[in-house]
Amino acid sequence: MARKAKVEKSNKDQKYSTRGVLRCRRCGRANGVLQKFELCRICFRELAHKGVLPGVKKSSW
């Protein structure tokens, strides 16, 4: 779980654009975040398996 202070700091408006940190909207994780869904890889996988994310399905070949 992410520290509340780091989550709040990332939500604040940054003076420079490179200081911004992309965090998961669901759990606050900073690494492994998919920009399109704004979710980390772990939350993305959980929600995709449940069928909550529209247009996402498990690939098989």
Describe this structure in words.
The chain has about 60 residues and is mainly α. The protein has a domain at about 20-55: Ribosomal Protein S14/S29 (30s Ribosomal Protein S14, Chain N), CATH 4.10.830.10. It contains 2 helices and 2 strands. The protein has helices at about 5-10, 40-50; strands at about 35, 40. A two-stranded antiparallel sheet has the order 1-2. Strand 1 (about 35) and strand 2 form a beta hairpin. Keywords: Metal-binding, Ribonucleoprotein, Ribosomal protein, RNA-binding, rRNA-binding, Zinc. One of its GO terms (cellular component) is small ribosomal subunit. It comes from Acetohalobium arabaticum (strain ATCC 49924 / DSM 5501 / Z-7288). GO terms for molecular function: metal ion binding; rRNA binding; structural constituent of ribosome.
Topology, element by element:
Blueprint: H1 4-11, E1 33-34, E2 39-40, H2 41-50
Antiparallel strand pairs: 1-2
Order of helices and strands: HEEH
Distance between the termini: 35 Å
Please tell me the overall pLDDT.
Answer: 88
**Which CATH class of the domain at 21-53?**
Few Secondary Structures
Number of E strands: 2
Structural class: mainly alpha
Q: How many helical elements?
A: 2
The name of the CATH architecture of the domain at 21-53 is Irregular
CATH superfamily of the domain at 21-53: Ribosomal Protein S14/S29
Helix content class = 25-40%
CATH topology of the domain at 21-53: 30s Ribosomal Protein S14, Chain N
**Which strands sit side by side, in order, in the main sheet?**
1-2
Low-confidence stretches: none
Alpha-carbon Rg, integer: 14 Å
Give the biggest sheet: 2 strands, antiparallel
Proportion of residues in extended strands: 5-15%
GO cellular component, one term: small ribosomal subunit
GO molecular function, one term: rRNA binding
Family: Belongs to the universal ribosomal protein uS14 family. Zinc-binding uS14 subfamily.
Protein name: Small ribosomal subunit protein uS14
